Amino acid sequence: MKKIPLIMDCDPGLDDAIALLLAIASPEELDILGISTVVGNVTVSQNQENARRICELTNQPDLKVFQGCARTFFERISPADSEYTADIHGETGLGGCKLPTPTMPLQSQDGVSFIIETLLNASEKITLAPSGPLTNVACALIMEPRIKDKIEKIVVMGGVIGLGNITPTAEYNFYCDPQAAYVVFTSGVPIVMIGLDATRQTQTSQEWLRTLAEIGTPVAQAVIDMLSFYHRPNAFLEPGVLGGVLHDPNIIAYLLKPELYSGRNAYVEIDVSSTIMAGRSTVDWHGKLGRKPNAYIINKVDVDGFFDLLTSRLNRYPMTTEKVHTCNHC
Ligand code: RIB
Ligand code: CA
Predict the structure, then answer these.
(1) What would the CATH number be for the domain defined by 4-314?
(2) Mean pLDDT over residues 103-114, rounded?
(3) What is the residue extent of each domain of the chain?
(4) Pocket residues: Cβ below 6 A from ligand 1
(5) Ligand nearest to the CA of 79
(6) Cα-to-centroid distance, 159 and ligand 2 (Å)
């Protein structure tokens, strides 16, 4: 299988962190060209530090981490003063698990310039994997439209066909920056949208957490420590959500095993109003409007296949003697 050249754009955040772990554990399939961070679950300075923490946890200090946009276009929700995100991802964005302060460098180039320059200089098309607000990707598309021809596809965690999470209508990433999502979904670039309808199917369970505990490596322990904060019934004030919803790792699992996913091409429109619909992704699932589809919308996941893949890849990380993390409750 030809390696997929990949740019991960994220806001780690617990589920972003696990997406990074899954991607880094998959070097046969993925060539991670760089990790850009964006304001979202926590501030971008915290996000970029967390991304570097994950790179060091996996002994990959040569991975390039970039800091991107520190705010969204209209700053609808600011993680700095949003109890919503602290309640879900914890004050640091990595739940109850403290990883050592990173020593690997943060790249001096900003995240948006990195995306633009990497795409323009690429000899082959690159896949973008955004798992936070789409501010960086939208800025890149606005600043340099020529990059559209260099993007293989954008596999985004965001949006929803049905009920939102941050509001009744909108999913968090699109709600944070509806304008950015609008720019991306009207860009004409091929999009795979993995929204809440799919990701809510991949919730953590006590049984799965016990499976991780049996692995016993520092990475598995770090994931348990992260998820112990995340795995709470109705943590998102969403009835029926019993575990921690692993939203973002679905992007990477889709790239690794697309056969685990199904959906359909559909027209999607992003609401950029300042009403209760802000950030809404209206998905014309039955083609009522007769408009040209602009995204492939995932609505079904082989959940067992997802967790088998995630567990097997996390199991690849080696046992190590040095203590790589300390936790409040270790
Ligand atoms: O709505 C879920 C998304 O919002 C995930 O990407 C999570 O990390 C948060 O960014
Ligand atoms: Ca995220």
Answers:
(1) 3.90.245.10
(2) 98
(3) 4-314
(4) 11, 13, 15-16, 40-41, 131-132, 157, 165, 171-173, 247-248
(5) 1
(6) 12
